[in-house]
Design brief:
Rossmann fold, Tumour Suppressor Smad4, 2 domains, six-stranded antiparallel beta sheet, 7 helices, 20% helix, globular
Length: 296
């Protein structure tokens, strides 16, 4: 079990405009305060609650470096956003994800399990998993244009109405192939059950030290998903003309349009994301529930 440093400040982030979270946010605040912990609310999350004197409210970027753990209320997308902020901050704050739906791959704690799970996390009894993150560097005109981080995937894709794009793919300085497709996904094992799964890529258990390269609707059917070592460096160069329109996105949370001559380098990030998993459900139990295996 990965040790958790003593916790005094607990960050709280809820899905944007999730008004159903309001009573739970108030209860969590009271529960933490009664036990001597200091709740710290993200700005948009605080807007879901009635105003109160003395409540500590900070931006998400400040939250990512100014607390000892974060409780996320929402779905996997909300947790991805928080994980990316923590990665950008270079911190290693653990995250406890609470799902407002049935169950999430990352936000797997359900509302009835909230306080039992929170108590286990604060007491240091909860299991913590380290999940690999990706660091993407986009170069333009030979210079670094953007550095981004992602927990699930880095995706290079065409615009909705444009033709398929042509991508040159190299792994650790060795040319691999040219992919003509709607795009390419570079995913972590955590991201294998996200866009990668929809594109026909394999499910990879999160503890496997690997990266996934998955073409999106490739023109040539022999362009298949490839699993490579996690320490490999992936370089993707779009072969674009004036007619082409391509984008790169990170965890589906942020991104930008690419230009001719851009190239994207993807490698393992410096630090992993730390996911608190206090429940007794195994990874495969979550898979069976989410993917409804054996139900038909």
């Amino acid at each position: 079990m990965i040790p958790v440093p003593p916790i005094t400040r607990v960050g709280i982030l809820a899905k944007a405009r999730l008004t159903a979270a309001t009573p739970h946010l108030l209860e969590i605040s009271e529960w933490l305060t009664a036990r001597g912990f200091s709740p710290v609310f993200e700005t948009g999350t605080a807007d879901l609650m009635p105003s109160a004197a003395g409540r500590e409210v900070v931006t998400q970027s400040v939250l990512a470096r100014g607390v000892d753990m974060v409780v996320v209320l929402g779905g996997d997308g909300t947790l991805l956003s928080m994980a990316d902020s923590i990665g950008d901050a270079g911190s290693d704050i653990p995250i406890l994800g609470v799902n407002f739906g049935s169950l999430g791959f990352l936000t797997e704690v359900t509302l009835p399990e909230l306080y039992r799970s929170l108590d286990a996390a604060l007491a240091g009894r909860a299991h913590i998993e380290e999940r690999m993150m990706l660091r993407a560097t986009t170069r333009r005109d030979g210079k670094v244009f953007e550095r981004s981080i992602a927990l699930n995937d880095v995706v290079i894709t065409k615009a909705a109405r444009s033709r398929m794009i042509d991508l040159s793919v190299s792994v650790s300085d060795e040319f691999v192939t040219r992919v003509k497709a709607d795009g390419l996904i570079v995913a972590t094992p955590t991201g294998s059950t996200a866009y990668n799964l929809s594109a026909g890529g394999p499910i990879v258990e999160p503890s496997v030290d690997a990266l996934l390269l998955t073409p999106i609707a490739p023109h040539t059917l022999t362009n298949r998903p490839v699993v490579i070592p996690a320490n490999a460096i992936v370089r993707v160069q779009p072969n674009m003309t004036d007619r082409d329109e391509a984008y790169v996105t990170f965890d589906g949370q942020a991104g930008f349009q690419l230009q001719m001559g851009d190239d994207i380098e993807v490698r393992r990030a410096e630090k992993p994301m730390r996911l608190i998993r206090p429940s007794t459900r195994s990874y495969f139990a979550v898979l069976r529930t989410k993917l409804k295996w054996g139900e038909r």
